[in-house]
């Protein structure tokens, strides 16, 4: 068992073990779910030093020549939350401080071990230390902000003010290649449907099964500012919105205290934010919605 990054470890060690193992060795790769190695679309993920990221606008995507796919018998995809939960458990129960790619590999190894027979021997490579991730995977504040922790359910949370489960409606989101005219139509339709008059924007392909991740929230588009730009002749309906983007909207994890999120938005003089769950943008939220669950 090994995660796949450049592919050199799993290819080299795997080929040698197969040569000397007399056909008894199976090589299994572990990979972040969205990595292209395991069939994902390459969107950003949070378990570093594993997998293969592919930008949405990439045309050619050569894989590392050090990765020999013929050596690997199968690849198991592992969600970020599972990998992170596994390394935190490993630190807590076994005193081993390892990083995200180790969590990916160990999560897959636990699955293989559960399905293997009693005579099987499962060997897993844990390739990275957790020392460089103390302010990430081992920091509750970082994890809570990205939506990897549930928070305290005995108090009002951000999730209580916005739907964040798998059945939540698609997040209002604009691709940076959208035109001003299309953006105005989407923003007006959203406003009429009760959505805040500002949408996040970025390079994420827009679709019902493709929610943006936190790194893909690269800007925002305001209905008021866009209408003003068109009225003043500074923008035309056929122009791309890439040149009209505002700052990215703030984001909160779904498990964060609603009162703290409301206080932060108020202090920053902002009204709208994005709600994250497991690093994915799930919904928009405003101060009125947060106030409704805290009062």
Characterise this structure:
- It is a single chain.
- The mean pLDDT is 94.
- The chain has 295 residues and is α/β, with parallel strands linked by helices.
- It is globular.
- The chain starts with a strand and ends with a helix.
- The strands form three sheets. A three-stranded parallel beta sheet has the order 1-2-3.
- The protein has helices at 8-20, 80-94, 100-115, 140-146, 180-192, 223-231, 258-268, 287-294; strands at 2-3, 28-32, 74-78, 174-175, 198-202, 219-222, 251-253, 272-277, 280-286.
- It has two domains: 2-138, Rossmann fold; 158-294, CBS-domain, CATH 3.10.580.10.
Question: Could you give the order of strands across the largest sheet?
Answer: 1-2-3
Q: How much strand content do the residues show?
A: 5-15%
CATH architecture of the largest domain: 3-Layer(aba) Sandwich
Oligomer: single chain
CATH topology of the largest domain: Rossmann fold
Average predicted local confidence, pLDDT = 94
Structural class: alpha/beta
Largest sheet: 3 strands, parallel
Gyration radius (Cα, Å) is: 22 Å
CATH class categorisation of the largest domain: Alpha Beta
Q: What is the N-to-C succession of helices and strands?
A: EHEEHHHEHEEHEHEEH
C-alpha geometry: globular
Number of domains: 2
Number of strands: 9
Classify the helix fraction into a percent range: 25-40%
Q: Could you give the distance between the termini?
A: 51 Å
Task: Supply the number of helical segments.
Answer: 8
